[in-house]
TrEMBL record:
<dbReference type="GO" id="GO:0004888">
    <property type="term" value="F:transmembrane signaling receptor activity"/>
</dbReference>
<keyword id="KW-0675">Receptor</keyword>
<feature type="domain" description="Neurotransmitter-gated ion-channel ligand-binding">
    <location>
        <begin position="1"/>
        <end position="127"/>
    </location>
</feature>
<dbReference type="GO" id="GO:0005230">
    <property type="term" value="F:extracellular ligand-gated monoatomic ion channel activity"/>
</dbReference>
<dbReference type="InterPro" id="IPR018000">
    <property type="entry name" value="Neurotransmitter_ion_chnl_CS"/>
</dbReference>
<dbReference type="GO" id="GO:0016020">
    <property type="term" value="C:membrane"/>
</dbReference>
<dbReference type="Pfam" id="PF02931">
    <property type="entry name" value="Neur_chan_LBD"/>
</dbReference>
<protein>
    <submittedName>
        <fullName>Nicotinic acetylcholine receptor alpha 5 subunit</fullName>
    </submittedName>
</protein>
<dbReference type="InterPro" id="IPR006202">
    <property type="entry name" value="Neur_chan_lig-bd"/>
</dbReference>
<keyword id="KW-0472">Membrane</keyword>
<dbReference type="InterPro" id="IPR006201">
    <property type="entry name" value="Neur_channel"/>
</dbReference>
<dbReference type="InterPro" id="IPR036734">
    <property type="entry name" value="Neur_chan_lig-bd_sf"/>
</dbReference>
Length: 132
């Protein structure tokens, strides 16, 4: 919902594809900066999970049906929610898993659902980075 950087200009000039079925496909490039709390109790042998929640405040779920492109019918969970094929390996962290979950929430004020996709990014610190 909130980008820690506050800079959204990379998405402004991206075109959307509109199909005759009414489907609109918009694939803007994006760079998001975020932060998360970490628990260093077991440092440098720690595993951390950071949550990244993407959704909209402007339109409800009846207007924008937010779905992960790999979502299977009847399931709101995608086991591998992020394409890591062009991810640069970190010298400090290994990414263990990044599942994506689609959530629907109805607030007391409104009859419409509000949707988000939440990514749980689980990382393990590479101990050799600190123990050599």
């Amino acid at each position: 919902y909130n980008n820690a950087d506050g800079n959204y200009e990379v998405t402004l000039m991206t075109k959307a594809t509109v199909y005759c079925t009414g489907l609109v496909l918009w694939q803007p490039p994006a760079v998001y900066k975020s932060s998360c709390s970490i628990d260093v109790e077991f440092f440098p042998y720690d595993v951390q999970t950071c949550v990244l929640k993407l959704g909209g405040w402007t339109y409800d779920g009846f207007k924008v049906d937010l779905r992960h492109m790999d979502e299977k019918v009847g399931s709101n969970i995608v086991d591998v929610g992020v394409d890591l094929s062009e991810f640069y390996m970190s010298v400090e962290w290994d990414i263990l898993e990044v599942p994506a979950v689609r959530n629907e929430k109805i607030y007391p004020c409104c009859d419409e659902p509000y949707l988000d996709i939440t990514f749980n990014i689980t990382m393990r610190r590479k101990t050799l980075f600190y123990t050599v």
